[in-house]
């Protein structure tokens, strides 16, 4: 459905780029926040306006939501860098947006978190996200919380392992997931822009075990199937050692992946992009 006056934060990221294309394909009027507009070439001036701002700096967002009906934020980081923490980006930057949205009377705020963030809020990567989710729910704005079951791009590390001819998995490898392509997730988000006060937990069309994902990666690279299963206690020990002997900059992302991959994470299936095809395409560049 066509909407007007949508503010998109995080437009330069993996999902944000797909969202921008989907919104424009549907002839929505979009304002995209970017840090470096000189690096952008706006080829769709009828529907897209680019504004310079930094979501981590509240002063650059002043009145940015004036006339906006819907804010969509994909703002968040997996790895802390450039002196910015999860709290700086996933929480504070989104709060900057939310405060501007409330001030300008925005009707709806769409925020992209991750699957089971509410269950694993003790993980550093989720602590900031869920703190913002709580603030959004109590803001009085209509909201949609999107909880994707991992992106295809997150599955790239299986291909990297497969390059060496073997894939290492913790435990039995029977844990099941259904990661989703950014294009499919973007379509799903745009399709729910009329919904109010909703949490959307969503994954791709194929539910697969880690063993099956490992086989897809090895097959895409024409490697024999060789999967090494490590005992689950070694996964737990790895998390404890990372927490004890490394900074949160290092252990945050690893803690996240090692925790979520220890059990089934199955979301509602959606879309038509398949991990097998993604791997075959990515394998051409390896």
From TrEMBL:
Which InterPro entries does this chain map to? ComplexI_NDUFA9_subunit, NAD(P)-bd_dom, NAD(P)-bd_dom_sf
CDD domains reported for this sequence: SDR_a5
Q: Domain NAD(P)-binding, which positions? A: 10-195
Q: Which Pfam families match?
A: NAD_binding_10
UniProt-recorded Gene Ontology molecular function terms: protein-containing complex binding
Q: What is this protein called?
A: Uncharacterized conserved protein YbjT, contains NAD(P)-binding and DUF2867 domains
Organism, by scientific name, is Arenibacter palladensis
List the taxonomic lineage.
Answer: Bacteria, Pseudomonadati, Bacteroidota, Flavobacteriia, Flavobacteriales
């Amino acid at each position: 459905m066509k909407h007007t006056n949508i503010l998109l934060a995080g437009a330069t990221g993996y999902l944000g780029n797909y969202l921008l294309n989907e919104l424009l394909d549907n002839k929505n009027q979009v304002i995209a926040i970017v840090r470096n507009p000189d690096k952008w070439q706006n080829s769709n001036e009828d529907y897209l306006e680019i504004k310079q701002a930094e979501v981590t700096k509240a002063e650059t967002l002043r009145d940015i939501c004036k006339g906006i009906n819907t804010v969509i934020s994909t703002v968040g980081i997996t790895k802390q860098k450039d002196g910015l923490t999860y709290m700086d980006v996933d929480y504070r930057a989104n709060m900057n947006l939310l405060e501007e949205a409330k001030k300008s009377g925005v009707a709806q705020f769409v925020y992209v978190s991750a699957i089971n963030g509410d269950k694993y809020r003790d993980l550093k990567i989720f602590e900031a996200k869920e703190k913002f989710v709580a603030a959004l729910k109590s803001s009085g704005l209509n909201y949609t919380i999107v909880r994707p079951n991992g992106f295809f791009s997150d599955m790239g590390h299986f291909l990297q392992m497969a390059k060496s001819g073997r894939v290492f998995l913790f435990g039995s490898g029977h844990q099941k997931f259904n990661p989703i392509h950014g294009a499919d997730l973007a379509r799903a988000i745009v399709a729910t822009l009329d919904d109010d006060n909703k949490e959307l937990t969503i994954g791709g069309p194929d539910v697969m075990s880690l063993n099956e994902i490992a086989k897809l990666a090895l097959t895409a690279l024409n490697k024999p199937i060789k999967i090494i299963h490590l005992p689950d206690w070694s996964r737990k020990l790895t998390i404890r050692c990372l927490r004890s002997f490394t900074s949160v900059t290092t252990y945050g992302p690893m803690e996240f992946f090692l925790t979520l991959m220890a059990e089934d994470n199955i979301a509602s299936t959606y879309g038509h992009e398949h991990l097998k095809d993604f791997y075959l395409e990515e394998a051409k560049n390896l």
